[in-house]
Structure formats: C-alpha cells, structure tokens
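Objective 1b: paired records.
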Amino acid sequence: CLHSPFRFRMEPKAQLEAFQQIEAEGLVLLAIFHSHPHGPEGPSLADLEEHAYPDVIHIIWSRSGNRWSCKAFRLDSGRPEAIPLTMDAEGQSPGSDRAEGGIGT
C-alpha cells in the first residue's frame, strides 16, 4: 500500500475484510508477523509507534547476511517484551497452548 522497500502497510480494504472474517468465524487474532530484511531484529520505532492491537504478539523476521532469524514480542507496555518462540525440526509448534506465556511452549 505504501510502495516502499522499507515500509509496508496492508491495504485498508483487505485489512478490514481480514478482521471481519476473523470475527465472523469466531477466531482470535493471536499474532501479526512481518519482516525487517534491512532493519533491526526487534521492533522498529515505527512498529512501536504504530502498534494498535492490544494483546497481539508481533513476530519479526530479520536478516543478517544470508541468515534469517525470527523473534516474538509483546508491545503493550510501550517497550518491547521478548516472548519465547520455539519450533520443532519440521517447523511445527511443539505445543498448542500458551501455558508458559510463550508461543508454542
């Protein structure tokens, strides 16, 4: 929507339709993911300033050279709080509940 190699904003109509579908199906938005191919491994200043969904976890992929890594954060307190993120060897979450407060733990 922004036509920028450094910023992304979902097209408003598509975003509204996605939220309407989530609500219609009785689902809950747990996380939003995006990438920082040329940026920080954690939330950027723009991420912090534009955070608009309380209780939603932000999963951020970042790149260093040819290596990508993924981290999860809560942004509700005004500062990033890292959340443990684990996957098994096949890329599937090893657990489905959030008993320990992490994703896939």
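Objective 1b, second protein:
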Amino acid sequence: MRLVRIKKESCQVPTEIYGITKECYGEYFISNDDKNDYTEGWQNITTYDTEISWDDMQWRYQNGTQLDGYPFWAKLSTYSGGGYVIVLEPGMDNRVRIKKLEDNLWVERHTRAILTEFTIYNAQTNLFCIVTLVAEFPATGAVIPYASIQTARLYDFTDNIMFFVLTCEGIFVLFILFFAYRELKQIYKTGIQAYLKEFWNCVELGIILFTFAAIALYVYRALNIRNVLDLVKHDPFNFKSFQFAGYWDETYTFLLAIVVLLANIKLNKLLRFNKRFSLLASTLKYAYFSLLMFSIIWGIVFTAFTLVAALVFWTHPVQLPQCHRFSDVSPEPHAGEDGVF
C-alpha cells in the first residue's frame, strides 16, 4: 500500500476569512507532493537515526526510483511514483499493523490517494495481472475508488512454438533491414526533400522507424522483465512492483499497433488495382468535402453533449481533461447500449 499526500500549507487562505479558519488543504499536483520524512503521527523528525525500524518505514518517503514505479493516472489526478509505503507480507499480522497506522492517523487531511498494488500470475494461461486499486481523497472530502487491471504476457517463450516464433522474428528483422537499406538508397538518390514529398514514401519511412523503435523497446522490455523476475526468484516473499515492466509492455504493444496501422495503409496502395476498391476510393474522394463538413458539425454537437453529461452525471468536481471519460461512453447510446451512466 502506497500513500500519497500533499505538503502542508499547499494553498493560501483568503484574507477575508482568515479570522474564521487558518488551514487550507489544496488539490493534489505532482509539484506539491510531500517528500519529507516523518515519525509516527506525521511528526517532524528532529534527529535522524542510523538504523530505521520496520515500523518507521511507513513514515519515510520513498521516490519512484526506489519503488520501481512511475506516475499513475487515476480519476482525479496523476500521482507520482513515490510515496509512503507499507508492505503487507505473508506471515505477519497485517491487520494489527494497519490498525496501528489507523490509530496514528496515517490517513488524514493531507492524504490525497492510497494505492494498493499487487501482481498475480496464472501459469495455465501464462498471464500476469498487474492490479492497482486506488482510493482518492479530493480536497472537498469523500473517497473516490478507481481500479486499474493490466494483463500482460511477460514470459514470451514458454510453449512448444517458441523456436518458430523466434525464427519468424528473425526473418522479420532481416526484412526490415532490407527495406531500410532500400529506402536509404532511394533517399541518397533523390534527396530527402524530394523523398518526403511522396506520401507513400512517408508511410514506408514511418513503418521502418517505428519498427526499429519497437525492436529497441523489445530488448529493453525483456531486460527489465528479466530483472524483476530475478528479484522475485531471489526473494519471493518481498513485494516487487511489476508496474514499470507492465508499462513498457504496454508501450511496446502501442508501437506494434502503429506499425500494423501503417502496414495496412500501405496495403491500400496495392489494393488500388482492384476495381471495387478503386470505386470506393473514388467515391470517398468525391464526397470528401461533404464528409468533412458533416464531421465538423457532428464534432461540435458531440463535444457539447459530452460536456453537459459530465456536468450532470459526474459525482465530483469536473476538470476539462477528465471529460474524455464521458467521450468514451457517449457514443454507446447511439449503438443501443443501455446502462451507460
């Protein structure tokens, strides 16, 4: 469990009401993240001991590098990868430890989020499930829950077709090297400016660049995953965060998706010789202006509907970046979906 809190005096009390209240607890931003060390009850430390007891660790700040974490995007805000951590280990009376934290007000007015992280592995399906359960505490009060469940296949080669997969990956790399050599040769012959004027050359170059980025990220991802798994094997009962490994796995998947998208666009160049596909392309080209005007009008109406829905149905103060959550579900009523809100 990781607690994120704001600094004391994170906001200023207006002078008009300073005589009524002198305390102000603002919203969370990474810039006002509390990174100080404390003792029990959030008391300031007067002297630092050379040895820190296990119970004192919950009151000492640990940064994202120490926890192998990265900023986490929840409902209300984006929280830093650091915080104040309690590790719930097997064989310990964790209920007593949590009760002690409750008695010492581990969660109080400056707390803005508690993130509970754990990872489970299903050997039958070879899937890791990286779970983050978040309880957010807005400045106005209440608790807002949020859950992030990320499924990843971190063991790439565990079945009988691993050699076939490795062979296909090797052939793919050879093809990319060949295409890169061919495009570099063409750039050298025509010049970079003349080369980039052709749309299909830009698509080809994008495929090559994103593929090289995916290959580099594939190697880095594999090294990061091996490092985390080695730590788990060395000390299986101590918590190791898979959040960073899951993040790179997700980024690698995004890069592959971009490569596949560009490859499908390139496929359209070959399909233009088909009469039916050529007819569809000609129709879209003819109706381009009408479709553009309709898209602009539809976008304005859709944005207005999303903003109204956010103001009416949202249960806590709305910020503009959070309206994307309603834009995700707004098209569902048009498709016949029920129970959207």
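The mean pLDDT is 83. The radius of gyration is 27 Å.
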